[in-house]
Design goal:
This protein is mostly helical and 235 residues long. 80% of the residues lie in helices and 2% in strands. It has a two-stranded antiparallel sheet with strand order 1-2.
């Protein structure tokens, strides 16, 4: 099933409006100038990645409870998209950190725990490729995804648990930026949320199609085997 063309148009239009607001309308920061515009992609990529991993976590719990293949496919689809956005987060963070911190990378607690998250979900996707059997793969992957998700709250609390130079955009007291920068950031979050929904739907449907193709090949293989057995018995 293809996504509604109106929804695709909505995602594209909202993303264009967000980029225009982030790159043109939003003001430069006092100290960083126009470099601060990376924030709108960096922060929203991070938020979207964590949302995707939460969806993978919830779907993994759902699979262990219901044991339905669709839950497992949803978990895998969300994890793959989360890994993509985590990659964007790390790349944009390095581009932002180089002129601000004078280094491409520092072993800051939030950066380190985010990199660990990236490796955890790379391992998750690799793990799925090494396990035979749909049910066994789904069960093992679900348990792994639930354990891997424990790194998400650690990332959230890393700036308070350890000494960190990573800036905090939002906490219990609210946003740490002027309103002129807050509303483009929130506009971007909606844009990235819509993009996640679109990518998740496409990736999930691709997994459904792949599983149906595997079933069809298995049915054809069995049918050929039965036909060969009947022909052999008739001789």
């Amino acid at each position: 099933m293809k996504p509604n063309i109106l929804f695709v148009a909505l995602v594209g239009a909202w993303m264009l409006v967000f980029l225009w607001c982030a790159l043109v309308l939003s003001p430069p920061e006092v100290h960083m100038g126009d470099l601060v515009r990376i924030l709108y992609v960096h922060v929203n990529s991070a938020w979207t990645a964590l949302l995707a991993f939460f969806v993978s976590f919830a779907a993994s719990v759902g699979y262990l409870i219901r044991r339905r293949l669709t839950w497992d496919l949803a978990a895998a689809s969300a994890a793959e998209i989360g890994l993509l956005f985590t990659t964007f987060t790390l790349l944009t963070g390095s581009l932002w950190g180089r002129p601000v911190w004078n280094t491409w990378w520092t072993w800051d607690p939030r950066l380190t725990t985010t990199l660990i998250l990236w490796f955890l979900y790379v391992a998750y996707l690799l793990l799925r490729q090494t396990i035979d059997g749909v049910e066994r793969r789904g069960r093992v992957a679900a348990v792994y995804a639930i354990v891997a998700f424990l790194d998400v709250p650690i990332i959230h609390e890393s700036v308070t648990w350890w000494r960190s130079i990573h800036p905090t955009v939002i906490d219990d007291s609210g946003f740490h930026m002027p309103d002129s920068m807050t509303w483009p950031l929130l506009l971007g979050f909606v844009a990235f949320l819509l993009l996640f929904c679109l990518l998740f739907w496409l990736r999930f449907q691709l997994e459904i199609t792949r599983m149906e193709a595997i079933r069809m090949r298995e049915q054809i293989r069995r049918a050929r085997g039965q036909a060969a057995h009947v022909q052999g018995g008739g001789r």
